[in-house]
Amino acid sequence: MLYFEDLEIGSTQSYGSYPVTREEVMQFASDYDPQPFHLDDDAAAATHFGRLSASGWHTCAMTMRMMVDNMKVNKQAGLGSPGVDQLRWKKPVYPGDTLRVETTLLEKRRSQSRRDMGIFKSRGQTFNQHDEVVLEMISNGLIRVRDPDAPISG
User: Against a cut of 0.85, is the pTM above it?
Assistant: First the structure.
């Protein structure tokens, strides 16, 4: 189990392999982001995407799935997230792409109000099969402290 004390600034993780299917792109778009370039080949061809593309929110959801699957294998004392500071969709995601994730720990600190909790910031990047960044985010996480009685120093 990974706790706050185990987090190392600068550490990087690589994981995931998510095949993007046409059916899932269209289903997600139909349910949550029904813009024509996510649902119709002709409409998509007339845009800068050039062809049917996944919603950026779908790319976030696929990224989250890979992150949670990684957390199931590499158990951590996670307590959720207070949010994302930055989110950028760098390139379109298309049916047929295969996505993967890399995360880098940028900073960490102990909570001043909750001795049993630490807060960390990480950069997450989602890549396609050509090693192109398709999504980049700076996110914040909450994680349990192994020893809440230890002095708060970082």
Answer: yes
